[in-house]
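To fix ideas, we close by showing one paired sequence and structure record:
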Amino acid sequence: MTITAARIERRALSRSAVVVGLLGLLLVVVVASLMWGARDVAAAEVWRALVDPVAGNNDHAVVRDERLPRTVIGLIGGAALGAAGALMQGVTRNPIADPGLLGLNSGASLGVITAIAGFGVSTVQGYLWFAFLGAAVAAVVVYGASSLGWEGVTPVKLALVGAAFSATATSLITIVLLSDANTLDEFRFWQVGSLANRTTTFFTTVVPFVLPFVVVGLLLALASGRVLNALSLGDDVARSLGQDVARGRLLVVLAVVVLCGSAVSLVGPIAFVGLVVPHVARLLTGPDYRWIVALSMLLGPVVLLVADVVGRLLVPGELEAGLVVAVIGAPVLLLIVRQSKAVAS
């Protein structure tokens, strides 16, 4: 066996071990999400609630009607946010990019504001359609504006136009919120991002609609790995390797729209998951985006569910997962940046 072949084999074994380890960690987090909260339920009782529920048993009702739906939604939303963040950092070649950079979160928020103020929508199920539509419109506007000019779409133009769109959408949102107290009351609970109140009804009515979009988005994300590897070398090098840069970038942006719109519809505009998770994946697997995207799909649910469980245990009532992720994500990101600088030097 040659030295190169041995190195490739060791790297494959190492990545396989990382995947197995993350799957085990995800299983532990899922069990913790089903067990812990304002009312702790033993692991054996959780198992019985899932396989042989007893009518009238309060522990079984808590597990099946409250914690199981929010855990599954956390898995779906976390995978979508993690993958979307990895795609964003790859397509923009920006290490601090996340779905909010292209204005997708702002577009989704503007859609929800439109639903509340313009159409009187007051349910999460109703927000779903408007959040998804808002994210899609934001992507079309940003990508379309970025494609103007002789050089077409570039990472810098995507970031600048996305920032401009976010600023405009945020201003419109602020104007509506300041002028309508009822809209502010409805919007502020969705804005912080949460897995709370994800009941069986929400699970059975919303998830069947969103899940196909998430599956399609994740498949597109996995298919984008080679494109992102080529784009990471620069557009000119990517073209010399036979890559259609415009089509590849459009594929990635489409995947981001589908994933971000779906995730925001389910859990709200939660920040830092899509920002921090790809950095952790990159530390575990290296610069290959085929693996970064795949690991981000596993790390995203871990981060989101851990934040949800911590939010349940931290205060007597409950702290929204979006707030916990922000508190945890900021120092983790600073640590990653510091470690990256140390490695570079």
User: Anything to note?
Assistant: The two ends are 34 Å apart (CA to CA). The mean pLDDT is 85. The CA atoms of residues 332 and 338 lie 10 Å apart. The chain has 14 helices and no strands.
